[in-house]
Design goal:
Number of strands: 8
Order of helices and strands: HHEEEEHEHEEEHHHH
Radius of gyration: 33 Å
Largest sheet: 4 strands, antiparallel
Low-confidence stretches: 251-255, 352-361
Length: 361
Amino acid sequence: MSEFRDFLLNGQVIDLLEKRTALELFHKLNPQAVESGERNGIKFVQARSEEMVLRYFEDGLLVIEKQVSDLKKDFAKIIKFYKEDLSPALAYLFSKGAKGLEIIRAPGSKKLFFVSSLGATGEEVSSFFSDRNKKVDIVSGYKELTINYADDLVLLNINKNIEDSAEDVKSLIENIVLFNETGRHLHKLLQTHRIIWDKADAIISKSNTQLKDLPKDSETLTDFSSMVVNIKARIEQMKLNLSFRESTFDNKNVGRLLLKFKNRNQDLDYLLSLFEMTSVHLNNNIYRLSTIYQEQQQRSLNRLQMLFLTSVVSGFLSLGFFDSFYIFVLLKFGGITILITLFIYYFWNSFIFKKVKRKAK
């Protein structure tokens, strides 16, 4: 977080990064009114950029806020700001060190938008969704607010008679955003696990794998294995972040509404065990393919050695048929050598080698 704060203040980056590129990204983002703060024990850095307010917390939560006038246009502005201004800067700032988390996105995955309102009536909430052709799937009611879930849109309607401070309400909203996004992220990771497992299983279960394909198949499984190791590390990090945030509101008034999200760590444990099993499965089969490749290479080498040996032996045998050495003798010698070599190789490969191979199996 300190690196992000230094960048927002003056475009300063670590020595491993190119200063010129960093300054270009800094001027494009154009952060203003940079300040650090703390909310319920969680530190954050905040800045303004045009109409946006971005807030980055030490546990990884990133929030972009904007006052809404035209929802569709404002959503488009937020997406454009994130993709064109903020995301390139974040990607460059954290491009060194551990590799970023890889997620194989399932088709049809959507971004989730959160909209907060103050004291909207039931009729206004219904009109809000119907005007956008959205159907509310889930409604969660609390004293402080009501949460309406509809596909990719979530409306947080705050009670206008709420007694909690504005900071507590904002903290509550940020916690709801974090835990909802964590759930969506878990779903994406589960989809990633299924895709990795299916693709790996398709390679492992191939019955007609040729020798030339084994290195490529082994390399693909190794790539999957590296991805799984990375995902496992990030899941552990997510667990730490969730536990840290939960510890900040366990005894606070606003924290009582988030008790239902405490099973997130159990979900993470389950997901971690799935990826651990996948890691073992991949590593075992990487070793198996490597062993098969080495065995087939050794068999090929044995065949070449036998072919060379039979060529030498047949050469000596054929020399015994001739008393003198002329050009026609050379031709006969070569022909006899080839015939004897082919005969011995055919006999070896058809009878002896196959018997050895069957015993090996």
